[in-house]
What we know:
CATH architecture of the largest domain: Distorted Sandwich
CATH topology of the largest domain: Glucose Permease (Domain IIA)
Order of helices and strands: EEHHHHHEEEEEEEEEEEEEH
Distance between the termini: 147 Å
Bound molecules: zinc ion
Helix content: 40-55%
Radius of gyration: 49 Å
Number of helices: 6
Number of strands: 15
Shape: rod-shaped
Structural class: alpha+beta
Largest sheet: 8 strands, antiparallel
Amino acid sequence: xxxxxxxxNSETNEYERIYVTLAQRVIIVLxxxxxxxxxxxxxxxxxxxxxxxxxxxxxxxxxxxxxxQYKVLSSRLDRAMLVLQDxxxxxxxxxxxxxxxxxxxxxxxxxxxxxxxxxxxxxxMNNAELLVETTQKxxxxxxxxxxxxxxxxxxxxxxxDAEERLRxxxxxxxxANRDLKRTASGYGYRIDPxxxxxxxxxxxxxxxxxxxxVYATADGVVESAKWMSGYGYTVVIDHGYGYKTLYAxxxxxxxxxxxxxxxxxxxxxxxxxxSGKSTGPHLHYEVINKGKHENPIxxxxxxxxxxxYDQMLQMAENHGKIYD
Length: 324
Ligand SMILES: [Zn+2]
């Protein structure tokens, strides 16, 4: 029950009760409601501003920034892939060709993840296409980098092997003969100096005085240093990788190496002589590759330049005389 209100009448010196009309009452109620709403709204605003909550607009801004960054990352990945492709091309077309190795197959390089569901978890997300595409690129880049590292490991191993193999490949003349004055006759069918019939000459003859130093033409192990029928005192060196060289008609028992001894290219192994079936002092030299005799003229590449090779070829072919 509302309390009655009074006002003081100074004329009558009495308190008089005030009777509020219905209209006045309605106005009072409405005014109270109005102020409540204003106060409540203000309080809400103050609280809302005090608690720092991002707005939808802010979310949208952030989202579009992230999207832009994602696109930048995606195009940077494209560039990284291009750099890697360049490295792969050099690997296949330069290093592997130089080292006589097969290029890495496209399947091995590009083996992807087609047909798998490894990207399913991304599909439900916003911008799923961009996410899947970028993740795929990263996966491919990672895999190809791994393959490239493996390939380079192989190239390094091949290179070491090639260096080792080169040291074991006959590559110089067995006597000092840079001016080619000692070249007598070459490989192929020749008239036998003793029997006077056409016979296959399996090596190359260098005419030289007795006691001329004879050198190993590549690294290897002495297979034998002994008398051999027809060849006289002979040294055979096994170079590995299928190669052997033979040095014949050496000076009697003047071997400087013995069986099982390791030798390096350019190391003196004997002195030249005239032992065995021979018509004059000379060194007979053979190159054997996987059991087959080869023309030694193709195995002087560290000694002879192109002109020297040409000159020796002419001399060895045209010089009729062999010493056997
Ligand atoms: Zn000969």
